[in-house]
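Troubleshooting log. The previous structure file for this entry was overwritten by mistake, so regenerating from the original sequence record. Sequence copied from the archived sheet and checked twice against the printout by T.R.
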Amino acid sequence: MTHPVLRALRRIAAPVSRTRWFRRVGPRALPVAERLLRRATGGRLVVSGILVPSLVLRTTGARSAQPRSSELMYTPDGRGGAIVAGTSFARAAHPAWTANLAAHPDAEVVVRGRRFRVRAERVPDAEREATWSRIERQWPGYRQYERDSGRTVRLFRLTTHAVPSPFDGRLWGWGRG
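Regenerated output below.
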């Protein structure tokens, strides 16, 4: 299980993350904070990783074919994989990394400074409600980003052959699902 202090911090931080102020400031401030923390920790931590399981997704650009990186929150799927949601701070447009994964589903993640190969699949429509429920157990109210964006957020499941899985929580102390 997740540590009680982390659960309490999430309950406080989650409503703040859904405010207009955060949605305006977050996309500008978080990348700067991510770079600083990455340098300070040698890539072992990302800002969101203080409160929730987080990773750096390394994809191939859908149009450019160039390497791209994105810091993302993930939710363990309970089967050794991870779920990532293209919420993009409730913006109207899908984030580029979702198009990259759709075009090039073989990618890499960095979790706590360790690299793992992953394969991405879109979460089927029939599984969306259950998937959102799982995500919101970790980050209450997160689906509000989808509602506020006016679009259907792209959900992906990342799977790996790594044993143990970097997403099941045992390696990092996050607890299960």
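Strands lie at 54-60, 67-73, 75-76, 82-85, 106-111, 114-122, 155-159. Archived copy saved in two places this time.
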